Amino acid sequence: MVSRGLSVVLVLALSACAGAPSSPPGQGSAGAPGAGQDSGAPATPVEPRAPEVPSGQRQAGEDLLRQAERAMASGDDARAQGLLQRAQRLDPSNPAAYLALATLLQKRGEHASARAMAERGLLFCQAQDCDQLRALAAP
Amino acid sequence: MFSSRARALTAKVLLVLALLLAITLAYLDALVSASFDQRRWETPATVFARPLELYPGLVLSPEALDYELELLGYRDSATLSGSGQKRRTGEVLAFHARSFAFADGRQPPARVELRFAGDRVSQVRVDERRAPLFRLEPLQIGGIYPRHQDRLLLRLAEVPDSLLEGLLAVEDRGFQQHHGISPTGILRAALANLRAGRLVQGGSTITQQLVKNYYLSRERSLLRKLIEALMALMLELHADKSEILEAYLNEVYLGQDGPRAIHGFGLAARHYFDAPLETLGLHQQALLIGMVKGPSLYNPLRNPDTALARRNLVLDVMREQSVISEAEHTVASAMPLDISQRPRVINTFPAYLNLVRRQLRRDYREQDLVASGLRVFTSFDPQLQRMAETAVTEVLSGLDREDKLQAAMVVTRYHNGEVVALIGGRKPRFAGFNRALDAIRPMGSLIKPVVYLTALEQPQRWTLASLLDDSPVSVDLGAGARWEPENFERESHGQVPLHTALTHSYNQATARLGMQLGTDRVRESLRRLGLERAQPDVPAMLLGAGGVAPVEVATLYQSIAAGGFALPLQTIREVVDAQGKLLKRSTLDYARVADPAAMHLLHYGLREVVREGTGRVVYRSLPADFDVAGKTGTTNDNRDAWFAGFSGDLLAVNWVGRDDNAPTGLTGATGAAPIWAHFMAAASRAGLAYRAPATIKHYWVDEASGKLSDERCAGARLLPFIEGSQPQAQAPCSDRGNGVFRWFREVFQ
Q1: What's the rounded Cα separation, in Å, for the pair B542 and B522?
Q2: From the CA of B126, how many Å to the nearest CA of chain A?
């Protein structure tokens, strides 16, 4: 047991020599403390970071979402879908794009697709849109 | 009596001759009409890259945008007086954007100004006003005959009038009047040649030249000339002048680019001037017109002086025929040849176009594809393609001086399944064997994530902390045969946590786990995640003995990267017909193929691979706080080196190996991962960033026993679990013995 523990430390120490980095800032408490504290070896953050998007990218995407909203209001769902897909492409971590696309799919009666779209959006949701996405993702 | 018999005989002979002539004519007529129509049906679809979306905050250097504008044929101009012009002053790049018909409508021309702060766009102004977004026209990356070879098609309306009139002035002045052949043209040509004392005009009409190019051999004989004339007359009966002219403009031979013949003015403009035809100056148009006569003799790259003289002769004719004014003539004649100085490699992306063509055939009806004038909008990203090519070229040249290694690479945006760059071989601009699509190689350890996912989908049986047995394994295959896979370093590791077995790619532990799961179940997972190619039903399949193409690996890893949501890989966003009507748009339609929570656990393992396992080499190129995930793969005797992985925005699959399947001495980590990392460091704009599914909870676990532990205990590691699946038993805690840590604890307890 002791020798295994040693070998783990050794492996991790060696991997540190190989030039692998330490854990990213803000994630310091997560990861492998056994290695992180004792040998300075790299650690895997237990979670990826929370999504954060440069504001310009979010604004550009939101601009397209507003255009899509107008298209939908005027009954042009095909145009709305094109704009929503463009918005999602431009800023794929905006939950609002998934919410709008899921709503559109739901409206068309494509329920399985709507659920999958909403559930994918949950990966990026903020407090307020999480509930709406969760409702659409529920079977 | 005699004379009447002779007359009868003559009449019979004449009748037979007339019949023969009629049959010949009918045959030629059928040939002309059928094949001309067929050729016209095969007018290629025009293929576009993705449009660049410009917005404040976009990571894009002024140089990169300038490169894209250059590719689009924008020209530097201090005054910015017209569309298609650009001007860079320090941190500001201004240009006059052309009008462009996108699939969702025409975008008007606009005066665009971009301010940069370092390698970021800081402000976008459109027509003097700040804008959140501007969509730049996409680069035309080719014309493809969905069923035929590559060519760059022009519509007649896209051809500048001066070029059309100049071409007719030089090649066929009577074109609009004659019926296919032109006796006066022949006479005029003869006179002109006599006057000039050399060959300045040919006697053949445009129609004859087209017929010759389409149907006839290069042989010069009177009979062939006669057939050519007959067929030209017939073609004029079947097609109108504009159809003939358009076909001619796209067919005419204008030189050679290595093994590739340059047919048509569109491709020639790209080849010689690196610009779209409609942006060429008069001097450039005249050069191309002049080259029709002798593409090799008047090749501006090989014989610049001869080409210049020929061009100026054409300009003289254009002035004589009032195609251009005296002033235009003076300016154009004083211009240098002005051919592109950059290496002529622009806009040849054979591997990607190859995939576009296949997907067109897969997703569209034959009758849609043969309609002329289709416009195909794709997700191809020339900037990412350039970075991928650089990564492959630079890393391979460091690994292999003998030029024996080959490579393939597939890059997708996994959030929507779009293929953005593709490399089919070490010389990416050379159309040949497309390894990204057609090289079927064993996938090796790239399969392991699927084995582990299959286990993690049963959280009550397996978690990241479950202990796996990595002792030597022997499976009875029947008939005395046994399967005895070994670890890469030929060592056993005893009991290892599941995440460690994945991270270090232990074969023995994986084989045992796979046998417990069953090959059927693993094969089912592969299919579910999108791998269509059937895998062999043998235990060795569990370690990746089955063959796959790189693009198929991308499909599989796409589902993993997207968190358990499958999307078909797509190149085509929209197809629009000649009238601008949208025929089809790709839809974003996820299929949920795995529990996102189980996939989240797998992501942990794949992130650990690059932080602590076989893929550590990637962080030699990437910053430590940039989160990525991936898996290495190496096949028997180091024949194939693989790496598949993803960041927050891109997925890339890399393969390195030899066409003769000889050992390379490389592993996934030494051969493929460095290319992947080189590319990601340049191309990816976002590290992995998303929220864990709500059912995920973190627990400290004792690595050796797999039992619950505590942050302060030695050998403890914080791992994600699907709620309820965390270990229940508590491991005894021995203090980790860190002095500072102990001191803190004592102070605060």
Answers
A1: 8
A2: 14
**Token code pair at residue B344:** 């002529």
Judged by a CB distance cut-off of 8 A, whether residue B687 touches chain A is yes
CB contact under 8 A, B611 and A54: no
Strand, coil or helix: what is A108?
A: coil
Asked if A30 and B625 count as a contact pair (C-beta separation under 8 A), the reply is no
Ordered DSSP codes for B134-199: EEPPPPEEEEE-TTS-B-----GGGS-HHHHHHHHHHH-TTTTTSSS--HHHHHHHHHHHHHHTS-
Residue B433: count other Cβ atoms within 10 Å of its Cβ: 15
Within 8 A of B692 by CB-CB distance, chain A residues are 47
Residues B615/B632, Cβ–Cβ less than 8 Å: yes
B103 touches chain A (CB under 8 A): yes
Q: Which residues are paired to B92 by β-bridges?
A: B89, B115
d(CA B203, CA B199): 10
Distance of alpha carbon B668 from alpha carbon B664, whole angstroms: 11
What does each C-alpha distance from B545 to A73, B502, B540, B638 come to in angstroms? 54, 17, 6, 13
Residue B541 per-residue DSSP state: G
Where is A135: in which H helix or E strand? helix A127-137
Stated as kind and residue range, the H or E segment containing B47 is: strand B45-48
pLDDT in tens, B24-67: 888 888 877 766 765 554 556 788 999 999 999 999 999 999 98
Confidence of residue B740 (pLDDT cuts 50, 70, 90): low
Strand ranges (E), B438-597: 441-442, 467-469, 475-478, 481-483, 495-497, 547-548, 565-566, 572-576, 582-585, 591-592
Q: Which two tokens stand for residue B299?
A: 């090749």
A46 and B603 in contact by Cβ < 8 A?
A: no
Say what the pTM is.
0.74
| Locus of tokens 């051969």 | B671
Could you give the CA distance from residue B745 to residue B749 in angstroms, rounded to a whole number? 6
Residue B97 CA to its chain's centroid (Å): 25
Spell out which residues of chain B touch residue A122, defining contact as CB-CB under 8 Å: 596, 691, 693-694
Q: Which residue has the tokens 């460095």?
A: B674
**Distant-in-sequence, close-in-space partners of B519: CB < 8 Å, separation ≥ 6:** B537, B538, B539, B541, B542
Question: What are the Cα distances from residue B647, in Å, to A25, B253, B307, B446, B680?
Answer: 17, 46, 51, 17, 8
B715 vs A81: CB contact, 8 Å cut-off?
no
Contact A37 B738 (CB under 8 A): yes
pLDDT tens per residue across span B191-248: 877 777 766 556 789 998 888 887 776 666 777 778 888 888 888 888 889 889 988 9
Q: What is the ipTM of this complex?
A: 0.75
Question: How far is B492 from B488, CA to CA, in rounded Å?
Answer: 10
Residues of B in contact with A21 (CB under 8 A): 611, 619, 623-625
